[in-house]
UniProtKB/TrEMBL annotation:
Gene it is expressed from: Ip6k3
The protein's enzyme class: transferase
EC number of this enzyme: 2.7.-.-
Source organism superkingdom: Eukaryota
Protein name: Kinase
UniProt KW keywords: Kinase, Transferase
Gene Ontology cellular component terms for the protein in this record: cytoplasm; nucleus
The keyword Chaperone is annotated on this UniProt entry: no
Family (UniProt): Belongs to the inositol phosphokinase (IPK) family.
GO molecular function: inositol hexakisphosphate kinase activity
Amino acid sequence: MVGQSPAEPRAAVLLQPFVHQVGGHTSMLTYDEHTICKPLVSQELSFYESLPLAMRQFTPQYKGIVSVHLKKDSLGNLTLIASPGLGQPDPCGRLDSAGGDPAVTLWHKCKWSHTQVTKTFKDSCPGKMLLRTDLQYHTDSLLEDANGKQAERKSYNPWGLHCHQQHLNRMSSKHNENKLHQFLLLENVVSKYSYPCILDLKMGTRQHGDDASEEKKARHIKKCEQSTSASLGVRICGMQVYQADTGHFLCKDKYYGRKLSPEGFRQTLRQFLCNGNQLRTDLLEPIILRLKALLAVIRKQSSYRFYSSSLLIIYDGQEHKEGVDQHLPFPKTHGTNPSRVDVRMIDFAHTTFKGSKINPNPTPYDGPDHGYIFGLENLIKILQSLLEGK
């Protein structure tokens, strides 16, 4: 890290695609090892600013806001630069050198479609370290073919790169380079995992927000009716699971998840807990306990509707024997939750609740989000049946 005096402006940060993004359509970007950022949506900011205390252990930590602008180099490559010094707090510090960033290391291991990662100093930014990443996205690297088998042959999850490229293209077509954009800074909830296995679940029986147009509302209702969202209150939006036998991640995307029957959902859930050699039955009970703790919290949140939000189930694909290594790269323990698993709610751009700063008079809802509860209860039942060997 470049040394700086207190009077110096804080270093600009070149934002990279978050290599562990498995779902969604918004580009998630790496700010530093423990922090990601995403485009600011007022309703999501309002949620984080008024987050009930009981929910904080089930959501990423909100770390503030940062200004971001688009930059095009002499070769026409588009990049996003975060500028912490432009009137915004920088609660996360500067980006560490590339050599110590496990996300970059994993990027090399997983053979992402990029040329190289190098550290450069820009003449226009003396004393500021930028991490330069040249990216190439190939449309033929999408996860599924017509038979749904392509993912098994892939060694990386290209979804985050796909979202990032689309985001850059949208920004460059709509805005000039000097325009500042506001991004949310959030905790990277998988930063302590060596091989993060992630399941992204779209929760609830309804996905459209109160502000959705009639066309968008109809589209989301159709997606729910034709997927497990209607029958189970939950559907798979993305997945990566480390396969110990091949050394690669097995990946599934949202299109795969939409096609699943309830039995297909159950089998994919089982696949998420299989490391290529065996079913990780040791993870089932801690995941169930964590989901039950979340269910108890959601039942007490009157007026909240978590439309279009997701739930992440996370564990480390690299098995360790407890008690052997006291420096395991796992998240801290939450209550009764053994540290090897985690459950987090994410994506609150369409979450509504009484007293929202953005929409002070939202559609009035009483009681808890029953669609979300329905999904959680079914998820727990399926995991419980796997635990019982059914």
